[in-house]
Design a protein that fits this description.
The chain has 640 residues and is an alpha+beta fold. The chain has 16 helices and 31 strands. Strands 12, 13, 17, 18, 19, 20, 21, 22, 23 and 24 form a 10-stranded mixed beta sheet that branches. A 5-stranded mixed beta sheet has the order 5-9-8-7-6, covered by helices on one side. The chain has a 4-stranded antiparallel beta sheet with strand order 28-27-30-31, with no helix packed on it.
Length: 640
């Protein structure tokens, strides 16, 4: 087989320096392990996934130790406390080289490098590990880095994490085998984000958040393994059963095929179909009164495949479910909402009273089928206005409720730019641009506006089957975003919606809880709290955001998860931010909701004030603890 040492990588430089012992290299690796793992994590491509990059980065750093005495290349070290250490320079070079190799795709007929193979160690079973999430700036930087080539990412990271000048970066990349070093440096120049963002917890693979893997699927696999051993002992008996002993559906397991409820759930003829006019007289207005639409509602083969895959998806089916959504099959015959051809796929949408389920398969076969599940219990009229029908080429189509009269596309970042009308054919919208992750900064956020007999409301695609509803107003009495004032309230905070993507979000409310005069200028800043509620009830995410006049977007001052702040149970909030007033220096600005009677700062900044606003001079980088007092003597801590 041929070698993979081809462009854009070249043979490593032959220039050499002092001899490094294994003990010296090990000391440098242990002392700077966290820095080296961060370096590898940032250089690895985003297609590996955050959890995959964490394990691969730790593996590459642990493999970087040389096997014996090795002559180090003439490359400067320069990290804090290790300037001129050839042991660190040697280990860092090996980390950069193997991270670049790991990012190269496997090619047929070419022997893979060791770094390209999945790591055997370290390994964690039953858990997915991710770095702690950062803010909107870190998310935007990660998206920009993912668009770069591996050498360009390495150049940017060596500049930012290692603080190397371009001459030293050029030396490291050349020694790592990069052929077009000049091209990598030019490409890296396109990243304009401050280097301090690279030190964020978003990119720290040593400070991790743990989440379980698919528990239900893991349980099913364990049961299948136990049952499989017993099945081998009685295979002769099974082979002697009549030909039709298992029923008509090969996708269902033998033990379930004789269950009447399972057979009913797999029978397309028993699907619930609602009259097109049922919603007009029904006491309920939700997914349960949607009629069956689409040009394939009579395709029994398609419907049976959709039901069978939902009941027992095969290994080749891509299954996704919003957090808190059970992934098992229906307990009985579900309701058919849609079956038809959409773009280049056949799509079926079903509803079982708890979940909305979408099955999609290519038009030319069943290979590559997908199954998406989302909770939708208690949706009501506002929460059942639309479901995502398809996503293709950065666009999204929706299937709207039968009571929807008009659909429009709006840019939430530019509410004054007007709306673009969407066509509705049998409830299906024409394509509109999705606010899915894109390369570069967030310059727009397109949302769907639906109008029915009760008014209009905004929905946004957060990467899930059921779009999230956008509201504005005080907790306990939010209103749909329909008027010009509500649209202006949301505009600076639209891009912060990316922080709650794929979290099972039901609705997001924006509450402008305070306005604060800015010291040194005759302008007021706005404080807004956005709270994302989920379908499962828990996991609500809260962001306190600070917006100054003229700034295109707001800054996230504080964030929290699973807290009652800014919600109906706790309709109050307190947050603070460090702000620089030109040549006048730094200030701590803190604001609370209007029922807070006093604000006090302690720790790195000391100060207090009557009322719900506090302005006090501070040093750059200072950290303070905030506490607010209420008229009834109770206190509230600052959101962090």
């Amino acid at each position: 087989m041929q070698s993979q040492d081809a462009a854009p990588f070249a043979a490593p430089s032959s220039s050499s320096g002092p001899v490094v012992d294994v003990e010296q290299a090990e000391a440098a690796l242990v002392e700077h392990y966290a820095r080296l793992v961060r370096l590898a994590y940032l250089v690895l491509p985003a297609r590996m996934g955050r959890s995959g990059r964490v394990f691969r980065a730790h593996c590459l750093v642990q493999r970087a130790l040389p096997r014996g005495r090795t002559r180090a290349p003439l490359i400067p070290a320069r990290p804090a406390g290790r300037d001129g250490d050839p042991g660190y320079a040697l280990v860092r070079l090996q980390v950069v080289r193997t991270a670049l190799e790991a990012g190269r795709p496997l090619r047929r007929g070419v022997w893979p490098k060791r770094a390209q193979l999945p790591p055997l160690l370290p390994r964690v079973w039953g858990l997915k590990l991710f770095p702690r999430p950062g803010g909107a700036d870190e998310l935007a930087l990660d998206q920009r880095l993912s668009a770069l080539s591996g050498p360009a990412r390495a150049a940017h990271v060596l500049r930012g994490v290692e603080r190397l000048p371009d001459g030293d970066v050029r030396t490291v990349l050349t020694a790592a085998g990069v052929a077009d070093v000049d091209g990598a440096l030019v490409e890296a120049d396109g990243i304009r984000a401050p280097y301090r963002l690279l030190d964020s917890p978003e990119f720290d693979p040593c400070s991790l958040t743990a989440r379980p893997t698919d528990l239900l699927r893991r349980r099913r696999r364990l049961k299948a393994a136990l049952v499989g051993g017993a099945a081998l002992a009685v295979c002769g008996t099974l082979l002697g059963l009549p030909e039709n002993g298992w029923g008509g559906d090969g996708a269902a397991g033998p033990s379930d095929a004789r269950n009447p409820a399972v057979r009913a759930a797999l029978d397309p003829g028993r699907l619930t179909r609602v009259s097109p006019a049922a919603w007009k007289t029904s006491a309920r207005t939700d997914f349960s009164v949607w009629p069956a639409r689409g040009d394939r509602t009579g395709d029994r083969a398609l419907l049976r495949r959709a039901l069978a895959v939902w009941t027992r998806p095969g290994q080749g089916v891509r299954v996704s479910a919003t957090p808190g959504t059970p992934s098992g099959g229906p307990a009985g015959p579900p309701q058919l909402l849609y079956a038809g051809r959409v773009d280049t796929a056949r799509v079926v949408i079903l509803y079982d009273g708890l979940r909305v389920v979408r099955y999609a398969e290519p038009e030319d076969g069943t290979e590559g089928a997908a199954l998406d599940l989302a909770r939708a219990d208690g949706a009501g009229r506002a929460g059942s206005g639309a479901v995502v029908l398809s996503r293709a080429d950065g666009n999204v189509r929706y299937l709207t409720a039968p009571w929807v009269r008009e659909a429009d596309e709006l840019d939430l970042r530019e509410p004054g730019s007007g709306a673009m009308a969407l066509t509705l054919v049998d409830g299906v919208t024409s394509p509109l641009a999705s606010p899915a992750p894109r390369e570069g900064p967030c310059t727009s956020w397109n949302v769907l506006r639906l109008t029915d007999g009760t008014g209009s409301r905004l929905l946004t695609d957060l990467g899930e089957l059921v779009p999230a509803r956008l509201t504005a107003g005080a907790p306990g009495s939010p209103k749909d975003v329909s008027g010009a004032k509500a649209l202006r309230t949301w505009a600076p905070y639209a891009c912060s919606l990316s922080a709650v993507r794929s979290a099972g979000v039901r609705s997001v409310n924006a509450w402008a809880f305070a306005e604060q005069p800015l010291p040194g200028v005759r302008q007021d800043a706005e404080w807004v709290c956005t709270r994302a509620e989920t379908w499962r009830g828990g996991g609500a995410r809260v962001l306190a955001q600070f917006h100054t006049p003229g700034a295109p977007s707001a800054a996230v001052a504080a964030k929290a998860e699973d807290v009652p702040a800014c919600g109906e149970r706790e309709p109050r909030v307190l947050a603070g931010v460090l702000w620089k007033s030109g040549a006048d220096g730094w200030y701590l600005l803190a604001a609370g909701s209007r029922d807070i009677a006093s604000v006090r700062a302690t720790g790195g900044v000391e100060g207090s004030a009557r009322g719900h606003l506090l302005t006090v001079r501070a040093e750059k980088g200072a950290r303070a603890d905030l506490e607010g007092g209420r008229e009834n003597g109770r206190t509230i801590s600052g959101l962090r």
